[in-house]
Amino acid sequence: MVLERGGVANSWKTERWDSLRLLTPNWHSRLPGYRYQGNDPDGYRTMPETVAFLEGYAQAISAPVQANTKVTRVRRTDEGYALTTDRGEWRSRAVVLASGACNVPSVPAFAEALPSGIAALTPFQYRNPDQLEPGGVLVVGASATGVQLADEIQRSGRPVTLAVGEHIRMPRRYRGRDILWWMDVAGVFDHGYHEVDDLNRARNVPSLQLAGYLDYRNVDLNSLTDLGVRLIGRLVGIRDGVAQFSGSLANQAALSDLKMNRLLELIDDWVARNEVLGGVQPSQRFERTRVPALPPLSLDLRRGEIRSIVWATGFRPDYSWLEVPVFDRKGRIRHDGGVVDSPGLYLMGMQFMRRRKSALIDGAGDDARDLSAHLASYLDGKATGPHTALAVPREHGPGSRAFTRDAW
Q1: Exposed, middle or buried: residue 236 (CB in 10 Å: 0-12, 13-18, 19+)?
Q2: Is residue 202 part of a domain?
Q3: Domain of 68: which CATH number?
Q4: 20 to 30 A Cα–Cα from 323, which one of 228, 261, 304, 361?
Q5: 369 and 275 belong to one structural domain
Q6: Residue that is last in its domain, among 281, 314, 347
């Protein structure tokens, strides 16, 4: 039984801004026995199209969804687990935690020090620029969400200041193909969690600076500068109404360029060793990121230049309802590739959970097959805990082992 707090694809329906499209091409949304069948495989789904895709999948597999059922408590019992919902109690020998990694916007504590009169929104609350007051907008965060919102808001006529922290620059297309096509065919997305030196680091890598624009244009700091967006360093605090910024903007931009070029080199190496049907365009490199020589280190928010702030500072999961002692000192669930440190408890959809693609729609099928095998073994009495977790298969196709180190 699938317990769902709303309807199928609830988050896509209720927690996304109006213009958002998936960052992954249509062909990349592959679920077991179900994939894109339209005539625009290289396009990017709108949110209504994404909802329709997931609803279609649920219908195709006759998913046993108990909709509008909010889980408020999960606890361990002698027989397995007891679940409390707003529609009654449930008992189960095994539970899969599939509530996702992005339940709650991650807003810094110093946001409480914002001067009165400045409107603050998270990406869950933002729908379009018309919500915002006329005047300047400070967008905090420069990963996928931040750069997309900065682009849209600047084009609406509101001057944007973008506070830039760690980010990963990425071209939308490379050598004539979508960058994600290269990452898919070359095995980057199948890179397993046992194959990285620093798994914690890999699981906290920022999202790629990509957008699902119909013209395939890049969205990065250079494109935003060309639009007139002002770049400043990472926002580190607010004191007496004055925002304070790090002086690391140039270093962050240079590191991001380095990471991008490292991936492009790996793709070029893969192309040199493999035949690509239809041929490919020549290798290319992109202009380095341009940043101001002396970006300001402070901004007085009381002067009225900034009227709104959008906190594009990431998201975190919400496990306030989980009363099982499986958390580490940072509040993260202890697990080995999705096999949680409590018999019969499993995890799905987290960043780099078993593979680099674990948090993508395309990653659900492979992870589910692995964990279903372990779950079935557990129910048969043959598996007892995380130490029996399945290893990620090492071979996924020709050339896939070209990526044996963290591309970021």
Answers
A1: middle
A2: no
A3: 3.50.50.60
A4: 361
A5: no
A6: 314
Q: CA 21, CA 49: separation in Å to the nearest integer?
A: 9
Domain boundaries, position 245: 105-172+210-314
pTM assigned to the model: 0.92
Per-residue pLDDT, averaged over 259-265, amounts to: 97
Q: Is residue 235 part of a domain?
A: yes
Tell me what pLDDT residue 384 has.
54
pLDDT-above-90 percentage for the chain: 92
Residues 98 and 120 in one domain: no
